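Chapter summary example.
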Amino acid sequence: MPYRHAPYYVLFCVAVIAVGFWPSYFAPFTTVPWQFHAHGVFASLWVLMVLAQSWTPHHGQMNLHRAVGKSSLFLFPFLIAGLMAIIDLTAKGFVGGDAVRMTWGGEFLIGLALAIAAYVVLFYRALRYRRKVWLHSGYMLATVLILFESPFSRVIGPYLPFESFMPSILISMALELVLIAALWWRFREKAAPFLVAGLFIVGQMLGMGLLHRNPVLEWCLTLLGAMPSVAVVGLGFALGAATSWAGWQAGKRPSVVAQPA
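The structure predicted for these 261 residues follows.
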């Protein structure tokens, strides 16, 4: 099976998530906004699901691997809904006068929107190519890579000589690209799924680095901020459910039509 060291990579990501989000989420767990829970719980479950997916085939647990994989069909809509909940929180803060979100709301929006687009593409292709082990495993592992930037930027942020937190985000994304380059150097075309993830990461870097106080993004924030939260989150859930359905259908074996005698 490919990527035999993948479980350790995912475990490292779990540790980074725990450390990075401890001050802002896990420690004040009972007092944070509900949007944090909508994202934090289901994103954490997603990483643990990928950990199980990467561990089981290397230990002869293929039946469990398939069962966990099928559970991702039901988990994915909640993952995307959770990301839309953070967009909802960002937009509500922008229109409500929150200083951080008024200043950086546009960057947050473009980063989150591209993260959602990346998850949709990666998961759809993981389902579509679920019978091709290199492609399937690469696309599933790449979803965790998209999650890595946010907690890692919080881990390294206090040790960087910058007043703004944006450099720590961009540096984290640059390190993700270094990892992708290393995987491509090691596995060449077999690592193509990580190149797909890399395109979205580059898009995030360019968007978040260049579109400060962009009027189009701020107009979108104003529009989203006026929408009911249930509509914003529901849109994410519907997108995730459609992705699960479309990907599962695309990966089915072609039916054999009996030829007339």
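To summarize the output: The chain is about 80% helix and 0% strand.
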